[in-house]
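Below is how a single chain appears once it has passed through the pipeline. First comes the sequence as given, then the structure the pipeline wrote out for it. We keep one example in the README because the format questions we get most often are answered faster by looking than by reading.
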Amino acid sequence: YQRRVRESNFIQMATAPYLVYNRPDAIVLLSQNRPSTALSIRKPDGEIREVSKSAQQLDGECGSRDQKLSADGILGVIRLLGGPYVILITGKNHVGALPGHHDVWKITSSAIFPLSSSSLSARQRADEDSYISMLTRLLRENFYFSYSADITQTLQRKFKEGDKEKEPLWKRVDNRFFWNQYLSKPLIDLQLNDWILPVMMGFIRIESCQINQQKFDFILISRRNINRAGTRYTRRGADGKGDVANNVETEQIIANDSSVASFVQTRGSVPVFWRQNPTLKYNPPIRVSANQQALQQAFSTHAKVQTEKYGRQVWVSLVDQKGRELNLHQSYLNNAATFNQSHPESAISFVPFDFHHECKGMKYQNLGKLISQIQPSVDSFGWNEGKDKFQNGVVRTNCVDNLDRTNVVQSLIGQHVLNNQLRKWNILSPSESIADHSTFLFLFKNIWADNADAISVQYSGTGALKNDFTRTGKRNTQGLINDGINSVTRYFLNNFNDGYRQDCYDLFLGNYRVEGQSVSPFIKREMQQNYLNFGVISLGTIIVLLSALSPSDMSWIGLVMYLLVWGGGLYGAYQVSLKLGDKLVDRPVLSDDPLP
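Resulting structure:
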C-alpha cells in the first residue's frame, strides 16, 4: 500500500466529474467517466432515465435559457410541496487516500434545484422554504464520500465478505451508514447504479506519519448510524427495534507499503427506554420507562446486533452511580444482568466505571484503573490484519451523551492498541510507546480530539468537553473555561434549537415524508415561538416595572428593599418559566419520540 496517489488519478478526481445542464425541460448530468451516456431528470414530474448524449450534443442543444455548471456527484432526489428537487454536490475537499489508492472527499458545498414551478399558497411557500433550509442546514455537517471505495464498511468486513469490487458501490455499503439512502431511492428503484454515490456522516482523517525512520499512515474513521439519528435531548436511549441514539462506529487504521491493521470501537446511548426532554432546567430529569418487558426486549435486540456485527462484547458504562444518573445506571446494570442470565452463550462483560467520581478533582490518572481492568479483554480481541487474523470482540463505551467522557476513554483504548500494533510491526521496540515520540503523540491526540469535536457538534451542537485532556493528556484552566462556554452554549442550543435540528435529520433521512401534507407541521413551532415571545415580553415588562420602582430613598434600608423586590421579581419570573418550560423550548414538529 502506498499513500501517494498516482498523479493522473488525482488530476482526474480533482476536477468535477460531472457536467450539469439545467434546461427548461430537464436537468441533465453527464459523467466524464461515461462521456456518451447522460442522466436526464425531467421537469416538472422528475421522471429519471438514461439517454445517449455526448457533451458535444448537449452543448449544441444549449439555448439562451440553459445553465451549465459542474458538479461532484448527485446526492439524490426529494419530493417536497412544490414537487421534486435534485440535490447535487458542488464542492469537495480531498481528505486523503485509503489503502488501495482510494481517494476520500469531504463535501464542502451543495445545491438544490427545483424541477417544478408549481403554484403554492403563501403558507405552502413558507413551509417549502423551511424544508429547503432544513436540507441546506444538515448538509453543512461532516459528510464524506469516495468514488471508488466503500467507506461505510470496516476493513475487516471487507476482508470477510470477499471481493465485491465488481458490484455497484451502493450495493456494497453498510446501510447503517448510508446517509443519502432515502434521497437515492429514485435512482435505486431504477437500478441506475453508476449514478448512485453513497455519502456518510461522521469524521475521517488521514495523515502520513513517521516513527524511528519508518513511515506509515494513521487513519481514523467514525461512522454515524442513520438509525435513531438526531440531537442530544430529542434522541436518547433505545427504540423498539433496538437501535440507540448517537450510535457511532470508530475504526483506527495504520497502513504502510506492505501491511494494514485496524481496530474498531463503538459507542451508543444506554440501550434502554429512557428520555431527557428539555424543560429549561440545566439538567432535565432522566425518565426511564417502567415497561420492563419492552425495555428488556430492546436491550436484547441491541445486544444481539452488537454481537452479530462485532463478536464478544465489553460494555464500559461511564454513567454516574449516584445523583441524577443513578436510575439510568441501575436500569442499565439490571438489564445487562438479565440478558446475561438468559443468553449465557453471548454474555456481555459489563464494566461500570463512575467517571466523575473516579476523576473528581481532575484526577484523570485514575483512568488507568479502567484501562487496566479491560486490558486483558482488549488484548484478547486482537485486531484485524486480514487473511486469518481478525478482531473478535469490541469495546462499547457510553456515558449519558456518549460524547465527552466516552471520547476520553476511547482515545486511551486506541492508544493502548496502537502501541501493541506498532511494536508488532517493529516500528516501536518492546520497551517503547508512542508517548516517547512527541511529534506523533501530538498528532495522534489531536486527531482523536478533532474526532471528538466533530461527533459532539453533530449531536449536541458544540465541540466536546474535557477535550483538553484528549489533546494534551492533562486537564488545565483553559480547558475548564472552554468547557464552561460549551456547556452554556449547549444549554441554549438544546433548549431553543434542537427541535429544528432534529427536524433536519428526519427530513433528510426520510423519517418524515412531505407528500400528501394537508396541515402545516410548522404551526406547532409557531405556537412554541409565540409562547417564547410572550415569555420574553413578560420578562422585559417585569424589568421595566422594577426599574420604574427605583427608590427615592437611597439609604441602605431603601437599597436593600429595592434589591429584595428585584430579586423576588426575577425569581418569580424564573419559577414561572420553569413551570412553562415544556412550552417554551423548541421541540421537533416533524416527528415524535414518546417514552414507551
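Residues 80 and 533 are 29 Å apart (CA to CA).

See the next section for the split statistics.
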